[in-house]
Amino acid sequence: MELNISGKNALITGSTKGIGLAIAKRLYKEGCNICINGRNKISLEKSQSLFKNSLAIEGDVTNPEKAKEIIKQVVNHFGSLDILVCNVGSGDSCKPGEENYDEWLKMFNLNFLSATNMIEASKNYLINTKGSFKENLLNITKENNNNSRFIASPKIYT
User: Fold this and answer.
1) pTM, rounded to two decimals
2) Which of 20, 85, 135, 158 has its CA at 20 to 30 Å from residue 129's CA atom?
3) pLDDT interval class at 139 (50, 70, 90)
């Protein structure tokens, strides 16, 4: 697949394993400069070894201040941000009927605020790239049965 994105700067959250790592590999193969992100330093270092000249940033993107810090590090390192892939989330939760406020809050933070924190922190940088890639923002959600949904936002910042 030829995406014509060689030289673009991409940040993939939740990219130390699974779908996020597969996306990072694909974008790297397409010629992107890659920044991977995760909460586990050991997994992050192992995954970074797969990509020459890449950036790896440890951090929990459910924290809005950490999200801002991650975006600033990416832009300082690469000079711009062209592609953001929001891949943090989980369908794992307690059994139906056993939910409580803390569990709802945990899942809301993980599955919703992780993406909104990254989008809010990066939107001005994505505006500056003027949608240089047709879909420069990708949000991935997972359902309980591990099926994934891919939601692309075409040129939302032009």
Assistant:
1) 0.81
2) 20
3) low
